[in-house]
Design brief:
145 residues, alpha/beta, 21% helix, two-stranded antiparallel sheet, D-tyrosyl-trna(Tyr) Deacylase, Chain: A, 2 helices, globular
């Protein structure tokens, strides 16, 4: 599993001109599932993201987690994170999990993140989404397991 997380002051997802989810302070988590990814990886990723200290404390140091600042997470499935662009000019998606495998694992990951105390909003699986991200810092971190 791969996740690109961004510390945000605002994030939202719009599908067919209708806003379907929205957060203020927190994280936008773009998540990709590869073939053979497991619940164990989702557990590790959820715990890591919930406790990652990337929010500033009173001294301006990145020393607080999304849970500690009372933030939320906007989880958006993004299969293109697992693309392979090493050869040619068109990305290969051979390493990407099939939707029937990816969707349950993303749902599992989302529930695990919520278990750690992170309020969740989500994108719409397999929908064409417009994702609005106001990245603060900017802070963007790539995590994979």
């Amino acid at each position: 599993m791969k996740a690109l997380i961004q510390r945000v002051s605002h994030g939202s997802v719009t599908v067919e001109n209708k806003k379907v989810s929205e957060i203020d302070l927190g994280l936008v988590v773009l998540i990709g599932v590869g073939k053979n990814d497991t619940q164990e990886q989702a557990d590790w990723l959820a715990e890591k993201i919930a406790n990652l200290r990337i929010f500033e404390d009173d001294q301006g140091k990145m020393n607080r987690s999304v849970v500690e600042v009372g933030g939320s997470a906007l989880v958006v499935s993004q299969f293109t994170l697992c693309a392979d662009a090493q050869k040619g000019r068109r990305p290969s998606f051979e390493k990407v999990a099939q939707p029937s495998e990816a969707e349950p694992l993303i749902e599992y990951f989302t529930k695990r993140l919520q278990f750690y105390g992170v309020p969740i909003q989500s994108g719409v699986f397999r929908a064409m989404m417009s994702v609005e991200i106001i990245n603060e810092g900017p802070v963007t971190i790539w995590i994979e397991k």
